[in-house]
Amino acid sequence: MSEKIKIIYIDDEKINVMLFQINFSVNYEVYTGYSGYEGLNLLEKHSDTKAVISDLSMPEMSGIEFIMEAKKKYPEKKFYILTGFEVTDEIENAIKSGLIQGYFRKPFCMQEIEKEINKLS
């Protein structure tokens, strides 16, 4: 049996983290955190993670700021933003520059995220 793809999901809202964990832990090994700082720690502990999905709007460190910091040390990782907002210039610029692979909208569509993650296996 092959190993599950490992993903990290960061969101400051506990309900979103819980829903993500419940929905995706069947098919993936999911590590979750509530801030960009926790995300950086999770990447340190689980360096074989394939994908990192982060909420855009979080206190202390936004999703883009977290990804910018993480990408310095883990340039090979695939990063995505999950947002409840319309696509901003910040997100478009992050895609164009290669900082993130793409973005997903809240409420998330499992099939859309799974399709993207499964490309990484």
UniProtKB/TrEMBL annotation:
<keyword id="KW-0597">Phosphoprotein</keyword>
<dbReference type="Pfam" id="PF00072">
    <property type="entry name" value="Response_reg"/>
</dbReference>
<feature type="domain" description="Response regulatory">
    <location>
        <begin position="6"/>
        <end position="121"/>
    </location>
</feature>
<protein>
    <submittedName>
        <fullName>CheY chemotaxis protein or a CheY-like REC (Receiver) domain</fullName>
    </submittedName>
</protein>
<feature type="modified residue" description="4-aspartylphosphate">
    <location>
        <position position="55"/>
    </location>
</feature>
<dbReference type="InterPro" id="IPR050595">
    <property type="entry name" value="Bact_response_regulator"/>
</dbReference>
<dbReference type="GO" id="GO:0000160">
    <property type="term" value="P:phosphorelay signal transduction system"/>
</dbReference>
<dbReference type="InterPro" id="IPR001789">
    <property type="entry name" value="Sig_transdc_resp-reg_receiver"/>
</dbReference>
<dbReference type="InterPro" id="IPR011006">
    <property type="entry name" value="CheY-like_superfamily"/>
</dbReference>
